[in-house]
Amino acid sequence: MKYFIFMCLSLVMLVSTGCSSKKVEHTKNEIVLAPQENIFSTEYTDEEIEEDAFLEEFEEEMFVEKKPDPFAGYNRVMTSFNDGMYEYVLAPTSRGYRYIVHKEIRMSVNNFFQNLLFPIRFVNNLLQGKVKNSADEAGRFLINSTIGVLGLFDPAKSYFKLEAHDEDFGQTLGFYGVGAGPHIVLPFFGPSNLRDILSRYPDYLLTPIDYNEERSYNLTNRYTESLAIKAYERVNYVSLHEGAYEKMKKDAVDLYPYLRDVYEQFREKAIKE
Prior knowledge:
Elements: H1 2-33, H2 46-62, H3 72-100, H4 103-116, H5 118-127, H6 131-146, H7 155-158, H8 169-175, E1 183-186, E2 190-193, H9 194-206, H10 223-240, H11 244-249, H12 255-272
Antiparallel strand pairs: 1-2
């Protein structure tokens, strides 16, 4: 009888232990299935916690809300157009120009055009309260326009260590919190956005490269001459940066969104600086 009772008690204890083990196993399964809720549980090792935190951060980056792109169809067509213009017109022209004109001359031409853009940089640095940068720009213009022979050379940088501070009205608006707006690709000019397109007009009023009949200081006498000079400036610029566009382009799986994202990130960075 005692032996029978002992066997019964042993059987009950065995069944209870089995149920308990299943319960623990079930609890552990729940933890594995929902690690976010139990990330600090003692069931996890330090490596598992670190890995889970990494995955959570990765998921947050993957599901960042994309900016609306209402002109995507037009932008793709215009990107293809600009890419074709570069490949079949601008690149061959710049290569021929590069072959004929010595690099020192091309660098002087680039310095000359950069010097003419002084009013844009000076005014926009001032509008953003960057007084020191504006003073640097004024000093650069004075030195390069005189000692540098009308800006053909850059002694302000070489001898006086005065760096250029590129700022435009689009950056000024961004500095004061104006959003970029939808992305828009311009023919010939390439990627842009609504804010930067509207900002072109104030900058246009400041630079002597663009012809303005209401302004006394113009580099040209008519709009066609202005366009021709700007086209020449672009050819000269590309000749000094041969292969840069091709190198960037080869990393693109889909050219339009790649160039769009590169442009928008570049502009955001420029505004923050």
